[in-house]
Amino acid sequence: MNMFKRLGIQISDWFIRLGFSEGTASALLEIIEILLVFILAWLSYFAAKLLITRFVHILVKRSKTNWDDILAERKVFKRIAYLAPALLIYKMTPLVIPDLETTVSIIQGMVNIYITVVFIGIMLSLLNGVNDIYQTYEISRTRPIKGFIQVLQIIFIILGIIFVISILRNESPAALLLGLGTLSAVLMLVFKDPILGFVGGIQLTANNMVRIGDWISMPKYGADGNVIDITLTTVKVQNWDKTITTIPTYALVNDYFQNWRGMEESGGRRIMRSINIDMTSVRFCTPEMLEKFKKVQFVSKYVEKRNDEIEAYNKKFNIDNSVLVNGRRQTNLGIFRAYLKEYLRNKPEVDENMTFLVRQLQPTENGIPVQVYVFSRIQQWAKYEDVQSDIFDHILAVIPHFDLRVFQSPTGSDFKALASTKKAGND
Q1: What's the start-to-end Cα distance of the chain, in Å?
Q2: Rounded to whole angstroms, how far apart are CA atoms 235 and 244?
Q3: Which of 68, 108, 390, 413 has the smallest set of CB atoms within 10 Å of its CB?
Q4: Tens digit of each residue's pLDDT (9 = 90 or more) over 187-207
Q5: 323 by DSSP, 3-state: which?
Q6: Residue 276 near residue 366, CB atoms below 8 Å
Q7: What count of other Cβ atoms lies within 10 Å of the Cβ of residue 112?
Q8: Which residues pair with 271 in a beta bridge?
Q9: Is 83 left (phi over 0), alpha (psi -120 to 50) or beta?
Q10: What residues contact residue 176 under an 8 Å CB cut-off, 6+ apart?
Q11: Helix (H) or strand (E) run with residue 391 in it
């Protein structure tokens, strides 16, 4: 006869001596024993919590590694303390009430459910801690695992639900797992987004399409900013106006988006902008124009060199220079393009080792587009815009010095000036 049995008999005899019947004394004894077990379980929780707080956390703080601190912050160790009262109740219940098999079975079933829930909580915290530890390494920027962590968490939750149902129904978990095959279609529908997100996450990671910190643009979803989080089902983008856009993970595989990582890694940022030149202002250069252009620092050597080449060519083929269309001539637009090239080469913010073009595009009804296609060494948005604006401020200011005009649609002031000129002519 164990200690609990002997103690129970003594308490039961004491109740009988107090005047209670044997049935009442037995019922009171069972209640007291159950309450005693739960009180001991409650005390065991605080004892385990104190042990973990006093000893485990002290060891964690003293250690030189970082991973145990992260696990402590995720409360992995503290959650283990919740197992102590459950294990005590599970072991002591058959000892204090061995005759009540049904009650013991019910209590142990409830304890098993509690242990399952606590274990799932521990595993979820542990997996979150693993993700936090992984993010301390540089590889986490190129190969995020948060999506895979979330898949494992979902698996643990599903398994936990299966175990809870099997305990409530008093069936084997394996039988329930086999029965899930008939519910596969329903599960596919319910977990459609997580499944698509998981597949999309694998493709994003395997193909290195998106990393945390990448600048991406996805107009369809109104996203234009830095990626701040990649999860199983969503990718969060903090836009430049500080708003947050959430994009389904699988959308980054199925739809178009632009990743600016290549620009950032190249060390330059593209400047591609055009100025439309009025076609009627393009002409052959006269000797007077050439003399004026020779005084411009950036093109003086170019004008002289080209002029010597053209004169040698025209002399070789006996060209009649009295007619401008004969032979070869310099144009004010050509000299202007040469000026822009030299001006950009002498601008320290422009990287001439990357693609460097100043070119004409197809003429349109709006004039001749002269395009600047170069790369800025500065990538920071505000400073980059300053560099780009400075370049085109200068271009707009120097165009008249080459006897060229910028094309723009007539405005109210243009019509007013035309009307004034016509009125003066009539007068």
Answers
A1: 133
A2: 10
A3: 413
A4: 666 667 677 777 777 777 767
A5: coil
A6: yes
A7: 17
A8: 374
A9: alpha
A10: 162, 165, 166, 169
A11: helix 381-398
Rounded CA-CA distance 405/401 in Å is: 10
CA quadruple 52, 57, 59, 64: dihedral, nearest 10? 150
Sign of the torsion formed by the C-alpha atoms of 48, 49, 52 and 58 = negative
Q: What is the pLDDT of residues 15-50, one digit of tens each?
A: 666 666 666 666 666 677 777 778 888 888 888 888
CA-CA distance, 315 to 53, in Å (whole number)? 98
Could you give the 3-state DSSP secondary structure of residue 229? strand
CA nearest to 42, candidates 76, 5, 81? 81
Structure-token pair, residue 149: 């962590």
Is the separation of the CB atoms in 298 and 342 below 8 Å?
A: yes
Q: Which amino acid is at 278?
A: D
Closest residue by Cα to residue 66 from 133, 129, 166: 133
Q: Contact, 370 vs 275, CB < 8 A?
A: yes
- Domains of the chain, with CATH numbers? 3-136 (no CATH), 205-266 (2.30.30.60), 269-283+331-413 (3.30.70.100)
Give the separation between CA 55 and CA 52, rounded to whole angstroms. 5
**With a threshold of 0.85, does the pTM exceed it?**
no
**Token digits of residue 180:** 């899930």
